[in-house]
Amino acid sequence: MLISFDWLKQLIHTDKTADEVGTLLTGAGLEVEAIHNFEMVKGGLEGIVLGEVLTCERHPDADRLNITTVDIGAGEPSQIVCGAPNVAAGQRVVVATVNSTLHPTGGDSFKIKKSKIRGAVSEGMICAEDEIGIGQSHAGIMVLDTDLPNGTSAAEFFGLGSDKVFEIGLTPNRADAASHYGVARDLQALINTPAILPAVDDFKVDNTKKPIAVEVENTEACPRYAGVTITGLQVGPSPEWMQKRLRAVGLSPINNVVDVTNYVLHELGQPLHAFDADKIKGDKIIVKTVDEGTTFKTLDGVERKLKATDLMICDTEGPMAIGGVFGGEASGVTDETTSIFIESAYFSSDWVRKTGMAHGLKTDASFRFERGTDPNMVITALKRAALLVQEVAGGEVSSEIVDEYPNPIGSKEITLSIERAHILIGKHIGTQRIKSILSDLGIEVTGETDTHLTLSVPPFKVDVTREADVVEEILRIYGFNNIEMDENLATTFLAKFPNPYAEDVTDVIMNYIAANGFHEIITNSITNSNYYKPAGEAEMAGLVQVINYNSEDLDVMRKSMVFSGLEVLRRNINRRQRDLKLFELGKVYEQQEGELKESRKLSLYMAGNVTAESWKQPSMKTSFHDLAGVVQNVLRKLNAGDFEVQPLEQSSYMRQGISYVKNGTEIAKLGVLDAGLTKFMEVKEQVWYAELNWDYLLKKYKDRLIAEELPKFPEVRRDLSLVLDKSVTFDQVKQVAFRVERKLLQDVNVFDVYEGDKIEAGKKAYALSFTLLDKQQTLTDKVIDSVMNRLMQQFEKQLGAFIRK
Q1: SS3 helix, strand, coil % of the chain, rounded to 5?
Q2: N or C: which end of the chain has fewer CB within 10 A?
Q3: CATH topology assigned to domain 213-404
Q4: pTM to 2 decimals?
């Protein structure tokens, strides 16, 4: 947001410099990110002053030159050689002094130097309007009619001086400061000087020959709608002073009527709209919604299909403007317009926000309506605009002000505990100081006891709804820097901190995954609802909507980690980084039976080759086992290793997947992402994906990450080859083995799988290794053989295995 310092000083008197004001505003929460120097004309007419020609004589050596003496208010008159045909003694003129720089219209800049012209000394230059960049004429020097003293800055005379412009990073909660008057209100509390609301006492109704009736059908979307008609005006350029102020805040002047509406918006924070009154059919305005799909052409020439939730400003024949967002082409002000109806309304922020998002429209008006405007400013702004239109375009007020306001919006009543306020501030500043700050901010104290204040908070304070908000208002004006740091720190509240050991476990796991070549990513928890549509209604259900989203691409909280990671994969793959191993620990959100659920997931992604190309070994595509190994080791590190492996239930995202189940709860799942999904996300590689239920794992196993001393007795390995039906999984073999021998069996591993013509059709051969260990003594051959015989018997009995010798 841009705020003109000159404009601001019209609303509040201050002798402080722009830098000083910028520091004060930043301390009060209106962060001044930069202060720009704005020049209406290049160079700001610096070094160019008013002067008076005292004498004028023909140059002895040049017929077309004159030697003049000019009083520029600097003591001795300056001698200036001038070639203009109209120069004469007694004239008030514009003089460029020595060392000033001129920026002529359509020409190159040059510096004025003391010089000799045909032997005569010249100490400056008497200027034409094109020579100082304020016009096109070069017929002669400018001759002024003014009583200003010699030496007066030409910028002051023309009203074209430079200005300081504050660039303020306005936070969404500070809708009350989205104008020059709003900033002045904050400054009022900071420098103890009253902000001056522009006077509208001179407003009067000249006649009632052009009344426009108003009917508001949807009072939820439009609680207040006001307007007035002005006839007999003439559309044309705005005066220089208005154009200067609009340009200072980044606006291009259009015409005097439209410029007035923009001027009042930036001055008072109240958006306005001007309709050509002669184009309002039936001399009536109806505020309502229209049928879904109705076409409407906006001021930018774009034909849009309206939604049933769009609030429209209509006449008796159809829509004229999108309420609070954008005007229509057919009813806009043109050069031929002679009568206007000025609209000043209070629109619901929710309705305006939805409409703006639906049509991708962002305007200065919608920016303010979306955050909340002041319903009490509606009539003041309307009168201010009417007076300005009459000043810059002429005309008469030709109707009474119509004001549809069936349910007035009152102030909010908040009770403030004085003791609580001092606790939250961190310092005792006294009740009187609190009351003074609140009064300066427009918050009225309506009741007072020894312990509490009853406050009436005006509606323009959109973000002040509770006691803590009031304390924030007090503190930002009192100054955070004025709260001293005690030598002895103390607190009245101790937060309940999570078990730090859980964070240690998280660090261990994250470091392990990173050590296996994975890169950590951190992505946005807010995502695009369109990602979930291809998966069907089931996935769309339960999405947590963001109410005040600023982009259609970021409108819901993520329900799954999948899409965040795929966005990162897509970006990297599109930049030829195809061998990727990524992981993220983040939160997902879901709405279940009216309740919002939040949980943490650990996600891992693999795409491309396992290792980079090398002369030592060929590149190998990432496979299920590459990712499964990492996931299983993470579970083992958490001592959750005795899990069951089950086929993955129907998934919207994964194919060829498995679930890791512990005590009936899915603790992890992995598989290859559906090819249709990756194509939809424009990821041109097969992606293996794993997701761990991190909250559950940390809750159950955070205290089980333990270290054990190395065994004193040696492990023993025995190998076995089994021929099994193809339907038998390795996990089934593993489960049978551990049911048979729980004490001595430490690990089962498959190191080879064979399927081919050397064994019966429909069969496969597993080469398995079994690791045995007795922590109390050395294993004997007798014990080992006994264990292996029992294993073979149960493999044959339970799995129909054939033992290969």
Answers
A1: 30, 30, 40
A2: C
A3: Phenylalanyl-tRNA Synthetase; Chain B, domain 3 (3.50.40)
A4: 0.64
